[in-house]
Specification:
By secondary structure, the protein is α/β, with parallel strands linked by helices. It folds into two domains: 162 residues, 3-Layer(aba) Sandwich (Rossmann fold), CATH 3.40.50.2300; 153 residues, Rossmann fold. 41% of the residues lie in helices and 17% in strands. Strands 6, 7, 8, 9, 10, 11, 12 and 14 form an eight-stranded mixed β-sheet that branches. A six-stranded parallel β-sheet has the order 2-1-3-4-5-13, with helices on both faces. 46% of the residues are buried. InterPro entries: Bact_Solute-Bind_Prot2, Peripla_BP_I, SBP_2_dom.
Length: 336
């Protein structure tokens, strides 16, 4: 009888140990593999290494495609993943397919970098247990405020984004417009600026669909002033600069225009390569996010959820403001 009791205790302790981090596999699923998202892989791996028995699986599509991302998530479910952190490419499609399946299987879901948007009828809190990443609306406002500092009397603007259906990017576009117009908009991405406080968008944003070569070509047309001309350029992501060699080749002929602020260039993200370009005077401002911390907090949050600890429902990771003058020191990140 005593032996049976001791065996029961041992098995109970083993179950508790397993529930508290033994052989737990958590996935971080980016929109696609890139300079930006691959930093979340490092944060994910570092966090998992600090918790015994926890493994980070970083897996995503090679290109930005909601169907490919959906396939990745379904594959992870089939493999018996214990929790998923996903950077949402398109809310409605994922919610109606792989994430619905994950929820039905009892797999905890958190979002990072990009949360669900208004295209879904259900309250986001019913679909995911936490959001980890940049406050995207506030990031957009920061981009707009940086432009106002450099052009206090207003001007003409072209913005650059990835996809027209991207939840986080539309919040950033709305944030820029709110900062420049002083208006509040009901839904992202807000409305095209038309003389608001001296600011006019000369066209709808360029959308590059996460194709880096296309992003460089689109930016080149802005630098040329053909077919449309503007004196300000804001990119709500780092696409053009994520192809270092192509960006440098494209923008070098326009160095004088940059130096004289004939066109002001403000770009999101601060990878080491981007900061080197900034030091070289190939942009005026870079506003950085912290994808490393997003990946790190994703794993820590999923672990707390699975082990039934208290956790934060929203974790906003910090942004940094970088100029050619402070490029060496502006982006000292937590954990890196």
């Amino acid at each position: 009888m005593i032996r049976l009791f001791l065996l029961f205790i041992a098995l109970s302790q083993l179950a508790i140990s397993s529930a508290h981090g033994k052989e737990l596999k958590f996935a971080v699923v980016p929109k696609f593999y890139s300079v930006f998202f691959d930093q979340s892989k490092t944060g994910c791996i570092d966090a998992a290494a600090q918790i015994e028995g926890v493994e980070c699986i970083y897996r995503g599509p090679e290109i930005s495609s909601v169907r490919l991302q959906d396939q990745v998530i379904n594959q992870l479910i089939d493999e018996g993943i214990d929790g998923i952190a996903v950077a949402v490419t398109q809310s409605k499609y994922l919610v109606e397919n792989s994430l619905k399946r994950a929820k039905e299987a009892g797999i905890p879901i958190v979002t990072y970098d990009s949360d669900f948007d208004a295209s879904i009828k259900e309250e986001p809190k019913n679909l995911r247990l936490a959001y980890i990443g940049t406050d995207n609306f506030e990031l957009g406002k920061s981009l707009g405020e940086q432009l106002k500092k450099l052009r206090p009397n207003g001007g003409t603007l072209i913005m650059h984004s990835g996809r027209p259906d991207s939840p986080n990017l539309n919040l950033r576009l709305m944030g820029v417009r709110s900062a420049l117009s002083g208006q509040k908009y009901d839904t992202p991405p807000g409305e095209l600026l038309n003389g608001d406080f001296g600011w006019t968008e000369v066209r709808e944003p360029f959308f590059n669909f996460d194709q880096l070569s296309q992003a460089v070509k689109q930016m080149e047309s802005v630098m040329k002033g053909k077919p449309v001309k503007a004196d300000s350029f804001i990119a709500v992501g780092g696409w053009a600069q994520n192809n270092d060699a192509l960006y440098r080749e494209m923008i070098s002929p326009y160095q004088e225009k940059i130096n004289n602020k004939e066109i002001v260039i403000i770009i999101t993200d601060t990878s080491p390569e981007q900061l080197t370009m900034l030091k070289d005077g190939l942009a005026h401002v870079n506003v950085g996010q912290n994808p490393y911390e997003m990946g790190r907090q994703a794993i820590l949050t999923l672990y707390k959820i699975v082990t039934k600890q208290k956790y934060e429902k929203v974790i906003y990771t910090p942004v940094t403001f970088c100029t050619p003058q402070n490029a060496d020191t502006c982006d000292k990140r937590i954990g890196m």
